[in-house]
Write a structure and sequence with these properties.
- A hairpin with a 4-residue loop joins strand 1 and strand 2.
- This protein has 10 helices and 10 strands.
- Helix content is about 40%, strand content about 10%.
- It is elongated.
- The chain has helices at about 45-65, 65-105, 150-165, 190-200, 205-210, 220-235, 250-260, 280-300, 305-315, 330-335; strands at about 15-20, 25, 30-35, 115-120, 125, 140, 170-175, 210-215, 245-250, 270-275.
- The protein has a domain at about 115-335: HUPs (Rossmann fold).
- Helix 1 crosses helix 2 (about 65-105), helix 3 (about 150-165) crosses helix 4 and helix 6 packs across helix 7 (about 250-260).
- The longest helix is centred in the first third of the chain and has 41 residues, at about 65-105.
- The strands form 3 sheets. Strands 8-7-4-9-10 form a 5-stranded parallel β-sheet, sandwiched between helices. A 3-stranded antiparallel β-sheet has the order 1-2-3, with no helix packed on it. It has a two-stranded antiparallel ribbon with strand order 5-6.
- The chain is an alpha/beta fold and about 350 residues long.
- The termini are far apart.
- This is DUF218 domain-containing protein.
């Protein structure tokens, strides 16, 4: 008879029972307590997973090469279709933006070729526009307070309208900024346009009004000319073939020679229409003009000394001048400040003069 000993170390298999605290278990056969081994948390290894996945795909492709080829081809075609649809949509959006840009780049007066510029000399302050030829309807400097002075302004406006009426290819610009602080933020150019409007464009409203605009930043005669040329470019997309300036007759030398030469515009395509000053101011006007002309002789671009200071004084509201944004071809001319002629190229020089 065999004797079976319980709990002997030679027992082939132990029976665990009665768990203790802390995760230990008591082995009844061996009479000892054992600690259960907890499985270790396996860390996440994305690189190993990718390698494993790649190995499986490689193995699968060896077993089913035709199926893998069909799946790859289908996937490739799907990607191509999606990209094609995206490209078509992208091109449609780009084309729509290009159409919008083309519309914004069209010039409202592209068919006009010649510039008629009326230089402003004062700001109209009347609220009724009923007395355009009266001095108290205008803001006048001390040297302008002469009988008949207002009538000379109106005559300039009328002459500009008449010249434009005879030339269907002309753009009429009234030029002059907000030069008088006490007159308020009203420009000379807008004053002249308002007077022309109140006078019914002197019988040429239907013909001229739609092509009569303003240049509202000039602070002296040189800027009247240069800024109006740039404004013409903004409105038409090109530079004027002919230029006609309307101002006082005693300023003809200043405009037709000094300023025209400074911007290098051909003499054969530059015209000047001057009207006389009032009889009571003629003598003083001639003296003043001689002084200003001498200043421009030494400083053709008005960018130094007294001419520069005068410009600053005629900008009481610190208006930002937009030019030469609208005429990039002559940006260097705007920046030039020298006693001699501008040495760079100009778009109108190459034209037949």
């Amino acid at each position: 008879m065999k004797n079976y000993s319980f709990g002997s170390s030679g027992s082939p298999k132990s029976f665990l029972a009665y768990p203790k605290k802390g995760g230990d278990f008591f082995d009844l056969e061996s009479g000892t307590s054992r600690r259960i081994r907890k499985p270790k948390n396996s860390p996440f290894h994305p690189i190993k997973m990718l390698k494993s996945f790649g190995t499986r795909i490689q193995y699968f492709s060896k077993l089913h090469p035709l199926l893998v080829f069909i799946i790859s081809l289908s996937l490739g075609l799907t990607i191509l279709i999606v990209l094609s649809l995206y490209e078509s949509h992208y091109r449609m959006v780009i084309n729509s933006y290009q159409k919008l840009d083309a519309g914004s780049d069209t010039y409202p007066f592209s068919k006009l070729q010649n510039l008629v510029m009326v230089a402003g000399h004062s700001v109209y302050t009347s609220s009724s526009c009923g007395k355009v030829d009266k001095e108290d309807s205008w803001f006048l400097e001390s040297y302008q307070k002469n009988p008949g002075q207002a009538s000379t302004f109106v005559r300039h406006i009328k002459e500009g309208v008449d010249i434009a009426a005879k030339d269907d290819a002309a753009l009429l610009l009234f030029s002059g900024g907000e030069t008088r602080k006490d007159a308020g933020p009203r420009s000379e150019a807008q004053s002249y346009w308002s007077v022309a409007e109140s006078e019914g464009w002197f019988g040429s409203e239907e013909n001229v009004r739609w092509r009569a605009l303003t240049e509202e930043h000039a602070r002296d005669s040189f800027e009247n000319l240069l800024f109006s040329v740039c404004r013409f470019r903004e409105l038409t997309g090109t530079y004027p073939y002919n230029i006609t300036v309307v101002s006082y007759d005693f300023k003809e030398e200043r405009f037709a020679h000094l300023h025209r030469t400074a911007i290098g515009f051909p003499e054969s395509r530059f015209f000047y229409l001057g009207t006389p000053a009032s009889s009571t101011s003629k003598e003083a006007a001639l003296k003043g003009e001689a002084l200003v002309r001498a200043q421009f002789l030494g400083d053709p671009y008005g960018c130094q000394g007294s001419l520069h200071r005068k410009r600053l004084g005629r900008d009481p509201f610190h208006r930002s001048i937009p030019y030469p944004n609208g005429c990039p071809e002559i940006k260097d001319l705007f920046r030039y400040c020298g006693a001699g002629p501008f040495p760079g190229s100009l778009p109108w020089v190459s034209k037949i003069s």
